[in-house]
Amino acid sequence: MNYKQAFVLVIEALNESIDDTTEESIKVAILEASDETRLFGGGGVLDSMGVVILLSDLEEKIEDNFEIVLSLASDSAMSRARSPFRTVKSLAEYVCNVVNT
Questions:
Q1: Distance between CA 56 and CA 51 in Å, rounded?
Q2: Closest by alpha carbon to 53, among 32, 82, 22, 89?
Q3: How far apart, in whole angstroms, are the C-alpha atoms of residue 14 and residue 22?
Q4: Architecture of the domain defined by 3-99
Q5: Could you tell me which residues come within 8 angstroms of residue 7 by beta carbon, excluding any fewer than 6 positions away?
Q6: How do the domains of the chain map onto residue ranges?
Q7: For residue 77, what pLDDT is reported?
């Protein structure tokens, strides 16, 4: 998997997370998401439960599209000084690393 493929999967999963309860400002941020869109932490578009759901959705998309079963929420990912779940870019890079190892 390359970065562009991972980026598309992250954006698709993010867009699919929008529902009737999503605040309007968050909807706009998600629909206009780019590499630098902050996912989690200060100014992020997701809360901790939203990140868990996004990771679960990504795992499912990876399995459906690439027939690879994996877990993105590993102990090593959770204990990193710089979270791979911070931005769209960091998450897409992390997905590439996990899939390609």
A1: 9
A2: 22
A3: 12
A4: Orthogonal Bundle (1.10)
A5: 35, 88, 89, 92
A6: 3-99
A7: 73
